Amino acid sequence: MADQLIRATAADGGIRAVGVITTRLTDEAKQRHKLSYVTTAALGRTMAAGLLLASSMKREGSRVNIRIRGNGAIGGIMADAGADGTVRGYVDNPDVELPPNAQGKLDVGGAVGQEGYVYVVRDVGYGYPYSSTVELVSGEIGDDITHYLVTSEQTPSALVLGVFVGAEGVTAAGGILIQIMPKAASDPELVELLESRIASLKGFTPLLQAGKTLPTIFEDLLGDLGLEVLPERQIVRFHCGCTFDRVLGALKLLGEAELQDMIEKDAGAEAICHFCGEVYNANSEQLSQLIGQLRDAQG
């Protein structure tokens, strides 16, 4: 199934539901960054969460940045997702691997750590971006982003994320987000019903592996509550906007002395994009051109 995002409503608009499949883009991130099993799961969950959060943004160019920094061996996680369905991300220590946790699953919480913070920045495309910081709850990503939604955006939410990765790569990844809108949040029975149904799920990837589609997952959860699955399917993909010209612009910021040192010692420069792992090489002639541009700017 292609990587995609769908939206739905229920309870006369009182419930908003979004689902995303990110199997291929998560596997691309794994290959680009040479991720271990547990760091693949951690980054994959964070990228899926970013796409789910960005799905509510309407303005072109809107993006959500999620940065997670805990006291675990993974260091930090960064995901940048857009309302256009693009996402990119990286982890500080991609080769970290841990034994399975007590449930026999990848120990994402242990890799991330239980002490630290989640930083979320929403750039709506104009004005100053909105930023918020909350403490980590478990390091399992889904719990932590749910905590952010409830405390910072004050929206009752349920978030289920999953990544299944094995020797053959990522075979299932994605997540679902269900939120109770203000007009329905005052109905305690509805809130309790949704909480019990979400709690009954055994994870997200087992549903995909059992052949469930996003609409059928929503039907199981919300079918008796006036479910309406919107017809649009948004394609989601791993995409980074880095270019060689941007790399040259960044190198120019180093200044003439540093550029000259690179020419003399290395006969060029190599730059690697943190977000996508793309490697860019600038030769001596290109660095000399940058020095010339700096001198011209100085008059």
Quick rundown:
This protein is of the alpha+beta class and 299 residues long.
Commentary on this structure:
The chain has 299 residues and is of the alpha+beta class. It folds into 2 domains: 4-238, Hsp33 domain (3-Layer(bab) Sandwich), CATH 3.55.30; 244-298, HSP33 redox switch-like (CBS domain Like, Alpha-Beta Complex). The protein contains 11 helices and 14 strands. The protein has helices at 23-33, 37-54, 108-112, 142-151, 182-185, 188-200, 205-209, 214-222, 244-252, 256-266, 284-298; strands at residues 4-10, 15-21, 63-70, 76-82, 86-91, 116-123, 130-135, 157-166, 169-180, 228-229, 234-235, 237-238, 268-272, 279-283. The strands form 3 sheets. Strands 1, 2, 8, 9, 10 and 11 form a 6-stranded antiparallel β-sheet that branches. A hairpin with a 3-residue loop joins strand 4 and strand 5. Helix 1 (23-33) packs across helix 2 (37-54) and helix 10 (256-266) runs antiparallel to helix 11 (284-298). The longest helix is centred in the N-terminal third of the chain and has 18 residues, at 37-54. The protein is elongated. The mean pLDDT is 92.
